[in-house]
Every structure is written in structure tokens, then in C-alpha cells.
Amino acid sequence: MNLYRGLENALRGAAGRLALRCPESRDWSYGQLFAAAERMAGALRALGVGAGDRVVAQVEKTPEAVSLYLGCLKLGAVYVPLNTAYTKSEVEYFLTDAASSLFVADSRLAASAPADARVETLDAGGGSLAALASGVDPLAETAAREDGDVAAIIYTSGTTGRAKGAMLTHGNLASNAQALNACWGWRPDDVLLHALPIFHVHGLFVALHCAFLAGSPTIFLSRFDAQSVLDALPQATVMMGVPTFYTRLLSEDAFTAELCRRMRLFISGSAPLAEQTFHAFEQRTGHRILERYGMSETLMNTSNPLDGERIAGTVGFALPGVEARIADAAGTPVAAGEVGGIEVRGRNVFSGYWRMPEKTRSEFRADGFFITGDVGVMDADGRVAIVGRAKDVVISGGYNIYPKEVEALLDEMPGVRESAVIGVPHPDFGEAVVAVLVAEQDVVQEDVDTFLRGRLARFKHPKRVVRVARLPRNVMGKVRKNALREAHRGLFGETAGAVAEQVKAG
Length: 506
Ligand code: MLC
Ligand code: AMP
Prior knowledge:
By secondary structure, the protein is of the alpha/beta class. 30% of the residues lie in helices and 24% in strands. Among the domains are: 1-12 and 26-145, Rossmann fold (3-Layer(aba) Sandwich), CATH 3.40.50.980; 394-505, ANL, C-terminal domain (GMP Synthetase, Chain A, domain 3). Helix 2 (30-46) packs across helix 6. Residues 496-506 have low confidence and may be disordered.
């Protein structure tokens, strides 16, 4: 199954249909988008990029960026998107690790590209790659990439060590897109409201593939901004977002049921949706948000039903073609209703971590199930609820932040003796990063910000720094993070749930 061919087949006869509606620039039809992709593929080929080569992209959210992604698929190159917030030192790591053939960056970001990187620029309506694409022959032939060939690498940080590249194949992406398109009942007359970034699986694959397979238009906002979303809502029928989108919308008085009159589906994922948000949303709009569960390594695993009961605090049932189970530490399935690790198997599950065969092996069971690191329960009908995480990760506004990465930097900071990084409830981001430091008297939040600037993407910086005399440890000497989380859970006042309650009451 070649993803590009799959999309082309689905879009046969749809060349004249609207693909991307961009309130900030011009609209793109499917014909224009795929013609741009073929020119992009031609430009990449002219630069010597071939099938299997890694194209690392740190680009703003523009239609041109979508054409770059599609161009890579067409050529058979491997697309490696990076968060635009990553700093030069983070980008250097990804370029080296991916052994990239080409780095495509927004002009603003290209200036800080490593000296030895091969760089082209791509901006809204311009850049060196766009200029080259307009002057070369478009690539006519779609590369012969099949089911098991890697189409994209998504970097995801690790509990230990540096980020790992999750290799997603054409088969992973195509099968998951088809499953979601069917489960969520996509129709050509749907209109997707898209405010997610396109460097993660949620905005790039889940959202865009669903709309493309249906040949339906997408209102393509460059970022989430409550006012722009409110302006676009009356034209939309489907929206996908992280929980922060929904709590932010609820805090707007102008967000009303009337504004949602054409909407048929609000979908949430990437982080837990607070039950209070679910209920406040239903009360305000009449819509029960459909929550689903996935990750970079597996794309989407489970979803609440389109028809049938959507239950707050649950992520629904395994998607068609996906097996999900709850298992103990040895991988033995536990009884319905018992808590255990969530494990999944199916065509959605990635082919492994890029150049990390050992790491890949350790995250799979002998029978092929992938150990997600999430903790959950499944009822007798197969409905899954996530109750926690075995992995030490903070999920803030839908971005994953690995404490280890932040702690390693903080421990290098002058005046810091030791550090522990935790996530605590935050009314906007769901969880926020907090650094607990054993440090000299004069180490304050500002010093931490200054030290981390340029070393770590801004969204990973601690939102609060707390100094303590010593870190609580267990008998093994391990920091008791639960105790720290408990001690500091009130740092940001109300939790997301409490805010939604307020909204509901107000
Ligand atoms: C921005 N900031 C964040 C942040 N986003 N801090 C913590 N967590 C975040 N998520 C910080 C910035 O560094 C900046 O700091 C300040 O907040 C304002 O920046 P901004 O760019 O104006 O923020 P904003 O546009 O409001 O962004 C918030 C957001 C965004 C929630 C809209 O983070 C977002 O779009 N999140 C979606 C993430 C996503 O797509 N996840 C999917 C992963 S895939 P300062 O201090 O400099 O002002 C996945 C699998 C699955 O998980 O199942 O889907
Ligand atoms: P990422 O590694 O960025 O792909 O993030 C994936 C992780 O996000 C999962 O392993 C979960 O911990 C979390 N996640 C995704 N969807 C949900 C959800 N609906 N509820 C709770 N956690 C979620």
C-alpha cells in the first residue's frame, strides 16, 4: 500500500475541489496542492534526494509545507518534521541522528542551522526550495514504495537518553487513515477546522489524511488562536484538538451552540480530556467530545464511537485492525476491570526506532504487542480508560516533555546541586513543568530561563522553579516524584477540571 497512490486514488476527479482554505493567504484546490507536491518532488530530486533519504523539515504551518510532505511521499523520501520551537542544539541532534540528506527550514529558522547542514528554505509563498520547484520538471512517476517502506520518522523523546525516531511506514499511515476515515464517518461535504501544528502525528497524519481521503476541504489556520477558531467555526463540520483547545474555547463567552450549528464532530486527543471539560462542553454546545487515544509510535489505537455512547474519561474501543490489551509487567493479559499496562498490536504499529534495534526489541513483547507505557483498564466490552502513565513524561498542552532531558541540563547549571522535574496540574496546559532544585540561595527562575534559552525549546522550560533543602528519596535512593507532585500540585491554583467547573457554573 503506497500512501501517495492511496491519496491520489481517493482524490480521483477531485482536482477542482477545495483542499486548503487559508484565511491568512489564498485557497488551494486539490489539483493545485498535488501539482505543487509533484514540483516539490522534482525539486528534491534535482537536489539529489532519492527514495529512502531523510528530509528533515522545520517549517511553519503553510500549504507549501503540506506540499513538501506530499512531495516527499511522491519521491519515496522519508519526511522528518520537527517542532518549530526546537533550538539550534536540538536541531543539530536530529539532523545528525537522522543522517539527513536535506534540511528544509523556514528562513527565520534556517539562519540558525548548523554550518555543515545542507539547507533549503521554505516559507509561505517563497523560499529557495519553492523557487527551485517552480523551475524544474514536476516528478511524474510515484516512487515504488510499498507497505513496509518508511514514509516518515517522528522523533519522540525518551525516558532515558536522547530522542528516538519512530519509523512509520506507508502501510501504518495508510491503514490508520482508512480506519479513522471510516470510524468517524468522513464525507466529501465535511469541512475540517485545523488549528493543530503539522509536525506531530495529530495535525499531520490524523487530521489531514482523514480530510484528504474524503476529498473534503480543510480550514487551515496557521496556529490555534481562539478568535480565529471562533471565526471559522460556523463554516466547519469537524474539529480536532488537544484538550487545551477545548478549555480555551470554553473560556470565551462568544463560544456558543449557535456558532457550532454546522458542526457534527469535535474530537480530542494527545492528552487526557478532563471529565469536567467534557461535561461543560456538552452543556455549552450540546456536543459530546469524541475522545481517542494514540501516540507517535502507533498512530491511533482506540476511539470512542461515532454512533454509540461516548463516555467521559474513557478513550473507547480498539480501532478496526488494532488489538489492544491490558497486561501485567510480564505481558500477561489481566482480567477485565484490572489496571495494567496498555499494549497494542496491528497495522498501525510502527516498524521500530530509527537505528535503535535494541531499544525497539525491548519495547515489544515476543508476540508482537507494543508496550505503550500508558496504564489503563479495559471493561468486559473492550472499552479502555487511561488511568496513568508508567513512563515519566509530562504532557503539557499536548506536547510531551521528558523530565530526564530537562534534569540533565539543570544539573549542569552553576549553583544547582540536583534537580527533579515533575508535571503538576495546570488550568490551561493540563500539566505544567515544574523544576524542584537543591541549589544555592541565589538561583532563581530567571537564571533557569536564561540558562535553558538556546539549549531547550521554550515549551519545555519549567513554568515554575521551587528550591528545596533536599529531594525526597526512597530506600533505593530514587527521587519520590509522587511525593513531589503531591506537595506541589496546587502551584497553579485550580486544575483544568476546576476551571471547566467554573466555566460550567458561570
Ligand atoms: C506553547 N507554550 C507552551 C506550550 N505551547 N508551554 C507548555 N506547553 C505547551 N504546549 C509556551 C511557549 O513556549 C510560550 O512561552 C507561551 O507558551 C506562548 O506560546 P504560544 O506559541 O503563543 O502558545 P500557544 O499558541 O498558546 O500554544 C498553546 C497550544 C499549542 C496548546 C495551542 O501548544 C498547541 O498547539 N499544542 C498542540 C500540540 C499537539 O499537536 N500535540 C499532538 C502531539 S501527537 P513564553 O513563556 O515564552 O511566553 C500525540 C499523539 C496523539 O500526542 O495521540 O495525538
Ligand atoms: P506522543 O509520544 O507525543 O505521541 O504522545 C503520546 C502519548 O500521549 C500517549 O502515550 C499517551 O500518554 C498520551 N495520550 C494520547 N491521547 C491521549 C488521551 N486521549 N488520553 C490520555 N493520554 C493520551
